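Reply to dn_fold:

You asked what the input looked like. This is it:
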Amino acid sequence: MSSIFGQAYRIATWGESHGGGVGVMIDGCPAGIPLSEEMIQFELDRRRPGQSEIVTPRKEADVCEILSGTFQGVTLGTSIAILVRNKDARPAAYEEMAVNYRPSHADYTYEAKYGLRNWQGGGRASARETIGRVAAAAVAQQVIKTLCPDLEVLAWVKSIQDLNASVDHSTITKEQIESNIVRTGDTAMVDTMIDRIKEVRGDGNSIGGVVECIVRGCPAGLGAPVFDKLDAELAKAMLSIPATKGFEVGSGFSGTLQTGREHNDAFYMEGDRVRTKTNNSGGIQGGISNGENLIFRVAFKPTATIMSEQDTVNSDKEDSTLKGRGRHDACVLPRAVPMVEAMVNLVLCDHLLRQRGQNGKITFK
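and this is what came back:
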């Protein structure tokens, strides 16, 4: 089903942007994992709207409630239900969109598929749906800490439009990324990026960019041949995030400019560990992690809903015009960072549990 993700660690998200609430059901979480609402809330606060001057001003505290699956601070091994109630919904702001399709939004395609749609904020097509993913990923992080305590997932804004951050993969820290509202790892670019977002928003427009992610401490052996390759699973996870338009791992498209001699990652021994001298593979070879850092990038398009009049058509298939209403991000990149990290944690948690299920325990070289 379209709202279910994962195999061993399986989640199902639900809820609409301006409905009563949104949330997630988690199945497959092992018993005895420490878990509290505070652990989940920390990640939800990084994703929520209204957190800074450059994101949507919708005021939602996004307070989570664990409804099932825990007892005395640990997971029971049964299904976990998490709810976040919508508090600042304003569906009236979207009345014009009940008949007019927003260009490049999911309005038309949802109606083409189902014959009807929830036009209040986009319904399931809204980025508010990602609350369930981030909550489930906060639980997944606790599982990962138990199974693979050295694993660390870090994402940051690499670029906004033509503004590019320079980040040292070996030294970047969570503290650096979270120290600024753009969530870039390059302090020299923070003010320039903020100014660009404000400028574009003031013009009733939007811009996109790229989020880069590194996974340190990922063991060799995660992933599966053919259809469940780790890079394929990550690609699906990333491209399921609203507004994504591209994914590349390791050298990505730039690798097409190299020869095999230039691109191949030569092996060498470091004690009893197999290492590679370069990492053009991005930590994945043959769809299976090789023990090097996972490195990939995700492209996000400019937000579809803009505060400028555009040509469109309506549900009667007549030419029309539409100017955006409501509260929207002029640039999704700062809030996309925790969403990217969330989807990585869901994929890695799932594959760690699948590895344990296949081998009886977690055993990696």
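The chain has one domain: 4-359.
Hope that clears it up.
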